[in-house]
């Protein structure tokens, strides 16, 4: 039987309607959630991501402003700009669009954002709190994945989750969140020698590799839940994930598509984190 498709687009739409309501309730109490985004340089992909975030904020009534800085901005100038936003009480969330020009150290930038405004969930304090299971801003893509699983009441506790990919923004944190939900977690990466043997054991398989067809039918156990995080561009300009979707959907019980899967959830969780910051819950 073909897998049920988990539409991130539909879920994101539903959640954003709920958020619009929450924002309006906050507005009634005189609280105006606001996200400030810093964009350094003129990378077209970064510009388009920032525009997407701005549009999503508008859709839910969250205020946003984009601070554009030249590509030759120094690290000191950027850190100074972040400090200004840290001190500005009207700003609840700060996001510095990555990647940054090479003269600027990314980790230094992440460390400078106040952890209480770190709506990307990349600050070491938020990462530490996520590990200990305390209240934290969760990184948006992993948070979106867990939200998708929960939206379908997919059991996580006691299940074997296999995460392919170990980046700091996707692989590592999604494994940690699955562990927090009591899954048994296995991480795979480019040095894993028996990938197929491990992925075949997965009840929940997360593909966060960044390579077309990295996960094929032979990697998937019958009935597994397959979450495809990958975003790869085909020659005709269209987007595809890491999973051979057509073959995988014949074996999986649930599967996420690309596009309209994890992608729309990532921005949605950024909005959720901004509302949380405005409520001062972190
Ligand atoms: P990275 O390039 O940082 O990490 C890729 C990971 O895949 C690494 O851990 C790497 O291992 C591992 N890997 C590479 N080749 C193999 C292989 N042959 N077998 C097993 N593991 C392998 O990417 P990101 O984590 O940042 O992103 C992953 C994908 O998700 C990308 O396509 C990205 O565009 C997409 N993405 C999508 C988002 C969304 O909102 N939908 C958000 C963020 C990312 P090693 O560590 O050993 O190098």
From TrEMBL:
InterPro entries for the chain: Aminoacid_DH-like_N_sf, NAD(P)-bd_dom_sf, THF_DH/CycHdrlase, THF_DH/CycHdrlase_cat_dom, THF_DH/CycHdrlase_CS, THF_DH/CycHdrlase_NAD-bd_dom
Record's keyword terms, sorted: Amino-acid biosynthesis, Histidine biosynthesis, Hydrolase, Methionine biosynthesis, Multifunctional enzyme, NADP, One-carbon metabolism, Oxidoreductase, Purine biosynthesis
Reaction(s) catalysed by this chain's protein: (6R)-5,10-methenyltetrahydrofolate + H2O = (6R)-10-formyltetrahydrofolate + H(+); (6R)-5,10-methylene-5,6,7,8-tetrahydrofolate + NADP(+) = (6R)-5,10-methenyltetrahydrofolate + NADPH
CDD domains membership: NAD_bind_m-THF_DH_Cyclohyd
One GO term of the biological process aspect: purine nucleotide biosynthetic process
Binding-site list for NADP(+): 165-167, 231
This enzyme's EC code(s): 1.5.1.5, 3.5.4.9
Assembly information from the UniProt record: Homodimer.
Functional description taken from the UniProt entry: Catalyzes the oxidation of 5,10-methylenetetrahydrofolate to 5,10-methenyltetrahydrofolate and then the hydrolysis of 5,10-methenyltetrahydrofolate to 10-formyltetrahydrofolate.
NCBIfam families: PRK10792.1, PRK14186.1
Name of the protein this chain belongs to: Bifunctional protein FolD
Organism: Oceanobacillus picturae
């Amino acid at each position: 039987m073909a897998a049920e498709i988990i539409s991130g687009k539909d879920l994101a739409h539903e959640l954003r309607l709920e958020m619009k309501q929450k924002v309006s309730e906050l507005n009634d109490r005189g609280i105006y959630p606001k996200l400030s985004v810093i964009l350094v340089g003129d990378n077209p992909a970064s510009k388009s991501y920032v525009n997407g975030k701005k549009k999503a904020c508008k859709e839910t009534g969250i205020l946003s402003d984009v601070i554009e800085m030249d590509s030759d901005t120094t690290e000191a100038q950027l850190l100074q700009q972040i400090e200004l936003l840290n001190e500005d009480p009207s700003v609840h969330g700060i996001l510095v669009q990555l990647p940054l020009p090479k003269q600027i150290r990314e980790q230094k930038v992440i460390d400078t954002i106040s952890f209480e405004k770190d709506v990307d969930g990349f600050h070491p304090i938020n990462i530490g709190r996520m590990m200990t299971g305390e209240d934290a801003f969760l990184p948006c893509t992993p948070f979106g994945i867990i939200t998708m699983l929960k939206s379908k009441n997919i059991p996580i506790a006691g299940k074997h989750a296999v995460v392919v990919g170990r980046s700091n923004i996707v692989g590592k944190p999604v494994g940690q969140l699955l562990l927090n939900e009591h899954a048994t977690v296995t991480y795979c990466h480019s040095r894993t020698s028996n990938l197929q043997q491990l992925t075949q054991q997965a009840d929940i398989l997360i593909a966060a590799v960044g390579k077309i067809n990295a996960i094929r039918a032979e990697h998937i156990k019958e009935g597994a839940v397959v979450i495809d995080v990958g975003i790869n561009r085909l020659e005709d300009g269209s987007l595809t994930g890491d999973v051979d979707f057509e073959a995988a959907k014949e074996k999986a019980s649930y599967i996420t598509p690309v596009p309209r899967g994890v992608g729309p959830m990532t921005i949605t969780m950024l909005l959720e984190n901004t509302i949380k910051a405005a409520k001062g819950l972190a």
